[in-house]
Write a structure and sequence with these properties.
This is DUF5133 domain-containing protein. By secondary structure, this protein is mainly α. It is built from 3 helices and no strands. The chain starts with 5 loop residues before the first helix and ends in a 15-residue tail after the last helix.
């Protein structure tokens, strides 16, 4: 399976986290749609079917991630 470049994954994770915070605070339709779009893109970029799995997969491919580091599983 092809995996997106770590820089792309890092940007997507940052966008997701920012949008999730905006959606939680504002709940605007625009923020919700953008969150859905970024979630979908994360799934496609990581070959997963849900955003939680996509975040775990993306974080394991970011610079500095260690395979034995299970802290990403707490999300």
């Amino acid at each position: 399976m092809l995996m997106a470049h770590p820089a792309v994954l890092e940007k997507l994770v940052e966008q997701y986290e920012t949008l999730r915070a905006l959606h939680a605070e504002e709940g605007s339709d625009k923020a919700r749609q953008r969150l859905d779009d970024v979630s979908y893109t994360l799934c496609i970029a990581t070959g997963t079917q849900d955003v939680d799995a996509a975040l775990i997969a993306a974080r394991h491919h970011l610079p500095g991630a260690r395979p034995e580091d299970d802290s990403v599983l707490e999300h």
